Amino acid sequence: MDITHQIIENRKIIELNEELENYFRNTVIPQLFVDSNLILRKFTPPAMKQFRLTEADNGRPISEITNRIRFPTILDNIQEVIDSNQDMEKEIQTTDLRWYQMNILPYIVRKSNQTNGVIITFVDISSRIEILKQYERLNLNHETVIFALSHDLKGPIGNIKGLIDLLRNMPEEDKNETDLLLESLSISVGKLMKTIEDLTDRIKDNSELAGDAERVDIQHIVEDVRIGLSDKIFESKAKIHTDFQVTELNFSRKNIRSIVYNLLSNAIKFSEQLRKPEIWIKTEEKDEYVLLTVSDNGPGIAKENHEMIFLRSTRLNPEVDGTGSGLFILKRMVEDLGGKVEVASVLGEGSVFRVFFKKEQSV
Prior knowledge:
Number of domains: 3
Strand order of the largest sheet: 2-1-5-4-3
Structural class: alpha+beta
CATH class of the largest domain: Alpha Beta
CATH topology of the largest domain: Heat Shock Protein 90
CATH superfamily of the largest domain: Histidine kinase-like ATPase, C-terminal domain
Shape: elongated
Number of strands: 12
Helix content: 40-55%
Largest sheet: 5 strands, antiparallel
Number of helices: 10
CATH architecture of the largest domain: 2-Layer Sandwich
């Protein structure tokens, strides 16, 4: 019986190793596996491409190849996680000016409860950071336009007001003077309209967001976002279910990731206030659209607030972190390409967000 049991256990270990090897070969996320002696033991194919690693690097001290990772404190961070048994998450910028979310997770041996090394995950968030910068610039530009609007319109409006006052006080017999004032008033109105048109054009020019359409695998995007939210998913014990009936879109990778990140992050943040978050992500064809649906078991949204949540800087619950601009940005991204966003929600029963991408945007 002992031999039979051992054979079964060995088979389980072999199957588990095969599953892990299959995961390592197919994951789209760069990952490094470093043991407690700071020796690189394994890495995923994306890490090979990202950091120019080769099979010969397995078994080498991580200190000998950190120059290819280009992050100066990574050795200290690895040692800190090994010593503390605590996860570490950082947003880092490498010397090639790309941004990553770096997660260092302790690899703990259950029997001894000792850290036997770390798993390091790198998620490229350069696109997300660039989008945030663009929106920061957009906000600054809008503030500038508002100040310009106030300044540039004061002159024409003041002139029109003065001409109206003169017309009111003009004697009826001074028709020539009245005609001249009316002509001046017409010119002032024309200048005012031209000023408004110029300011509108400036707003349009400053509102364009970079993001050319490309072939995007929505499954990879969701996996990327899940890795990026791994700490929140772990802390909240969130369960995420997926059903991809459509897997590819022709859309800006930056924007689709931002959309998925926003919806998934919100679902976790708001759901965990009441219960363990449970989230369903689904894609399907719907008439002339490709439909992305994200549902949760959160607190729900009152019907009178369904439109309000898509306004800039709207925060229904000030106790939850955020700027209140996420859904405003999401809606704008989708509608700029002919799509639409809908929400269905009842207080206490969760929320369903539906993002409709125009079918010609899909592959």
